[in-house]
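Q:
Got a chain?
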Amino acid sequence: MQWEPQRRADDPLQPVWDWLGRHWQAVLVICWLLLCAWMLSERAGAIRGFALPDTDDNLRMAQVRAWLAGQDWFDLRQMKLNPPGGFNIHWSRIVDLPIAALILGLRPFIGGAMAEKAAVAIAPMLPLLLAMFSLALAARRLVAPGAWLLAAALLPFAHGTMGMFRPLRIDHHGWQLALLALTIAALADPRRGRGGMVVGIASAVSLAIGLELLPYIAVAGASIVLRWVVHADARPRMLAYALSFGLATIIAYVVFASYANRQPLCDALTPVWLTTVAVACLAVAAIGIAPAETWRGRLLFAGFAGAATLAFFWFAWPGCHGRPEGVSPELYRLWLGNVREAKPLFAQDWPLFTGLSVLPALGLGGAAYCLWRARGTETVYPWLSVIVMSLFSVAMLVWQVRAGPASQLIGLFGCAGMVWTLVLRARASTRLLVRVIVPAGLLCAVPAASLVGALPIYPKSRPGPLRAKINRASRLCPTLAALAPIGRLPATTIFTFVDLGPRLITVTHHKAIAGPYHRNGDAILDVHHAFDGTPERARAIIRAHGATHLLVCPYLPESTVYKARSPKGFYARLERGERFDWLEPVTLPAKSPYWLWRLR
């Protein structure tokens, strides 16, 4: 399906469109550089302050530093959390590689501290280039060669998605989103073998980085198999996919799986998912070489392959039938169930609700329109994949808002296809106003819709005294200035909030007890039990962890959970001003947002 405007000799811009079509890769790189320059200028202050925005970003930085300092490639224990043994992180080294390479390359020229700041600013924008390229390539294949610029230009307006590519956002989600976009572009590749191979490799790398996009990986694989069911000519794509996915997953496991991930755990690329992928790929390869002349026979073979994979997973790994994190009911109740990004969309405020949901909804409608337009053509199959992914992403978004970035990204494909085709229809009109005004309105519609969450149409009120204190604490407590006096103390183990642990160990030489990671579940529970329980129990827990200091930031969001849940608990009593003889106050600057005590 190619929806391209007819060439018009009287169009003065026709040479421009022709040039853009011939040099689209170079123009795309220029657009990426301009976007990067804007993001760097917009985040310059945060980069100078090393304001890593999330606990995951801070822990990623700590992980890279430990590796550069000599930690074993396969040892992903974070020794500065839950000392003395540390705890294992379920990530891989894949995302560490570009960050470490930038630090090592820049350190001789600008010094270690500046090299780290430059690395965390540049690294998140590298997958942005892959995402933009994949969007443009998919638009050229699914819509029309000239639609690439429209698709790439829409990406900056997907605010949830773009948040994963901003400077300082060094967590792994940006790479996974870029690989998801590459997967969709490869599904539309007219060269069957190459398309199947790219989908397989992208799926394996995404799986090795993390399991967050596992459902989309499964949808991509199923769509390739179903395309073969309908058309036997799709056999080369399916065989290339099966072989590349299986082989790349094995290589990723051998090269990147940590010592801990060689155990049968459910939350990463471990023997659980390695064997499951291997069985699935062998089954798909087997049906690909089996004699099946009719679509009914191919459908039967595909059903056998799917059933064999599910049966293997179900009976071989019974411990992975539930949540992959494997957290206890108590840990879910006290911690994981309170994480905002794990809550459903309808539990959010209206600006966030509309800001996250408009693009996915438009994209789903646009993909359905493009699917109808593509009927009878080869592109109907990748559009079907986009539809299924869109439906799944919207369902996931309703369940948990953490699905927002992926949902918005998938929505861009449908939005680009719909806007492009409607613009072409308007340009074919005989009325001048329709040819001018309608395309301009359509080209502005998606960017305008993406801003609906920020429009002044929702009731605004000044934050109350409690909310003002929470906002102030959230703004000040993670800053280098606030943590600098604490960093000047002799290195020790500090007992503090779960969400403060990664930031504390990243910008000071101190150790902490816990971070918000499910493999650290016992330590997380200890922190909650200490702040929820009696002072005597808190003292026993703190001493059991070998901590010499207690650090709190009053009114940080985590503290409000303890105060609301246990109004007579240890933290609530501390915040009310009650003091205990086993805690000796440590003097901090007058404007410090922290309270610090030394254990007597």
User: Anything to note?
Assistant: Residues 242 and 284 are 6 Å apart (CA to CA). The longest strand covers residues 595-599. The chain is about 60% helix and 5% strand. Residues 210-453 form one domain.
